[in-house]
Amino acid sequence: MPQDCCAPEGNVMILACSGGSNVGQLSNQAAVELTEEGFGKMFCLAGIGGHLGGFVQSAKDVPSMIAIDGCSVGCAKAILEHAEVPIKAYLVLTDLGIEKNKDFRLRKEEVQKVKEAIKEACGGEQPVLPIVETGPSCCCG
Amino acid sequence: MEIKVLGPGCPKCEATEKNVKEAVAESGLDAQVDKVTDLMEIAKYGVFGTPAVVIDGEVKSVGKIPGKDEIKTWIEQQ
Asked: In Å, how far are A35, A80, B16 from A69, measured between CA atoms?
């Protein structure tokens, strides 16, 4: 039986910093939770940074995307600019008033605040797509 | 030249494969066109979604149906 294609339209690509600070990990955790909730789908910033073709082309071709940096150092933004990937939406967590530190015990209220800011940066609530099990280690769907 | 169309199987993947085959035929170039439907194999290309087109190992498009003329341009540039 033919399966639905796992085309990414309607699914926001989330490219999150995962750096060595609270804001890096807040960025990552928000991306994880929004993926689990079906708002979008986190993708491999490291793959883009490594100039791996499939990852770069995916980021260039995706209709909706948001890059999230923990702080103004802007590593995620720099990776995307270096790979010549146009950034469609962008968020820096320290701009939300979250102070950068080395405390990795993430606060739920801060994760929630970040998630809401991501949704707002993407133009509000996206249609929540059903989560389709595509098997382990599959980047599509 | 080796062209792979990545997709588990649905109208969009089939349309992409059709466009690729027509582009190859019209270009007159020698190319092998294969459809990759296995999700684990597709995942190795690092693509965000399907359908995707890969030419000689280079990912050319992801998550959309490329037009025949666009595909011909890629083929002729290889």
From this structure: 17, 11, 35
